[in-house]
Amino acid sequence: MLKVLQHIDQIRMQENIELYRTKIDKIDRAVIELLAERKRLSEDIIRAKHEMNMPTEDLERENEIITRLQQHAKDTLAPEFVMEIYRNIFRSAKAAFKEKKVCENEIFKEIKAKKILIAGPCAVESSEQIHTIAKELSECGVKYLRGGTFKPRTSPDSFQGLGMPGIVFLDRAAKAYGMYSVSEITGVYQLEQGFSKVDILQIGSRNAMNFELLKAVGRYTAAEQKPIILKRGFWMTIREFLAAAEYIRSAGNGSVILCLRGIRTFEQIDSEFRFTPDLASIQEIKKLSDLPVIFDPSHSAGKAEFVLPLAKAAIDLGADGIIAEAHNKPDCALSDAKQCVLPSEIGKLAQYIENVNRANQAK
Ligand code: PEP
Ligand code: MN
To answer: 144: which residues sit within 8 A by CB, 6+ positions away?
Structure first.
């Protein structure tokens, strides 16, 4: 009798397990459907943010959601469990969007196809100044207009740049002459205040190891793969420089342009050069990295008379382009006056680079 009762109990327990399993299967299907619906909605939000040029990642909101759900799940699910699930959910929505949206940036494609010349003043000083320089440079065939408006100066008493109004002047001047604009970004907040107008962002030598800036700029520009010129810190080894570029790439933006701009060595004890031109590094870096490598003869030399010879040497050594400082009134430049050349000098360099591009195409 006892055996019969035990047998009946076992059957009932098995029936219960089956019932629970059916319920669990139903819940699992519902969970999957809800997760898919959630993913669709968050992708719509990411797409809308991208179209409005807003940063697509909002870590603060992600953390808020997790905290809220941990409180909601209190006494039923462990907080670490909730966090792990939601971190994965957020990651999957962002990854799916990246796969669909990331495409090669058109300007970056152009830079990879032929040697480029970027020129313009160290700093945008006024609307008239940047318009005059843009006009003269574009007449010489220059397509990329540089101009700093957030200037990392050694002394706080030196001209610090015009800030955001300078970006408006630069953008208008570049558009007026069909050029691309290039400017140095020093804080990622600037992208939310109008800096996103700039076609190519520059991260300066002094910020080359500001890893938070590198990561944030990489993240903010990932959707459009906006080209980023990363200047070599003047104290940096080659491997440190390449590792810094990796910070931008692993944050989502692969359109990095490496810029050599001179390094500090013991030559500065008595050399006329502001920095030691790191020309040999062009060849070494090109062997180690697939990224374009450009050269800045202006900051390397620090003196106008050396700018053209250094630029030509860099091109001959295989540099993918030059970024040089030019001013219509070099003696009156508010920053880096000694190293500014006239737009007509840049015209000679433009011709030199054009000839090299033609010869390369003919090969
Ligand atoms: C510049 O390009 O104006 C500049 C400040 O350069 P670097 O960061 O190389 O000193
Ligand atoms: Mn400068």
So the answer is: 116, 117, 118, 119, 179, 180, 182, 200, 323
